[in-house]
Amino acid sequence: MHLYANPARFLRIAKWLTPLLLVSGLLLAGGAMLWGFFNTPPDRLMGDTVKILYIHVPSAWLGMGGWTAIAIASLVELVWRHPLAAIAARAAAVPGAVFTFICLATGSIWGRPTWGTWWVWDGRLTSMLVLLFLYFGYIALSGSLAREGQSSRIAAIFGLVGAINVPIINRSVVWWNSLHQPPSITTGGSAIDEVFLVPLMVAVLGFSLLFGGVVLARMRTILADIQAEARLRRMAQKADLKTSEAAS
Amino acid sequence: MTSALKPKHQRLVLIVLAVAALIGATLLAMVALRDQASYFYVPSDIAENPPEPGQAIRLGGMVEEGSIVELPDGVSVTFVVHDGVARVPVTFTGILPDLFVEGSGVVADGSMDVSGTFVAENVLAKHDENYMPRELEDMTPDQVRETIAETTG
Asked: Which residue from B94, B134, B15 is spatially nearest to A48, judged by alpha carbons?
């Protein structure tokens, strides 16, 4: 666990892993979308609108996956005091919020022709909107704690408590009657025909790699910020020392 | 033996307990929300607990095969919503969504009138979890495999 606690070792690995994840993610996600848009047939009922599936489903998966990552990192931070965990959680928040927003926006656009409405307050849609607000709260909280130079432990507790929403989103279409359809992919198999399922799975993998690359890039940025700030503080102290010596 | 837990393990136990309590509280809340958080009532709910005429409710279920009747005024339609147990007749005046077909899911806002008919003000189509290309719908599994091989090969 503490093998990667050393930021220098982490940075060495992240340096080559970040571009690798970003490029392979872009290629896979882009390829899967082109494949899905131009080379799959229309759905029997929804026609061509089904193709928004290739953006909507990976975004939903990463919106929820992003918060799961925040929760795991928060647990590691609180229990093992791992120095990189807080940075990883902070780095996952913004991409998670972006994907949650994309999921809500594409779902709304898809809902208009399919259901006949942009938005309803059913269990799935409402709990997903709550997730977006949780992300906003987390980003504001962890950002302000970092700016004030305070411990990120409060943000970690928030990350753990907020994780309770993830299984609620997942189960919302099973527990309650909802306008959103029940899960298509379960342990029993898939109700999505193979022609749609294969590009969808490739898109999910591609977007996930992309997500990992963005998180690593953001972690490197945060680490560089911390280093730069520490250096500036040392320089300022030295300068202070000199002026006080000169004055005495 | 009074040796205490390591601080690391103490924190772990504390967090596990807190998370367990949180999950318990949430499950209680979800069970309590069971009826209120549902987006619509199905016909058997309405048969068990008939709502007051005029009370705004949402009705959801499947459109019965062969039950859609267009009325002579050209904009009104009647159909029957069922859930395999009970059935409710519905009348609606307005534009129906494209996915509204016999045998598919539907969610309607409105209220019951005194004769036991549901007067819908708004009708939404509910998509099911199946995604299937149009051409494959009426084919046998062998034909499906052939077609996929042709289009992707």
From this structure: B134
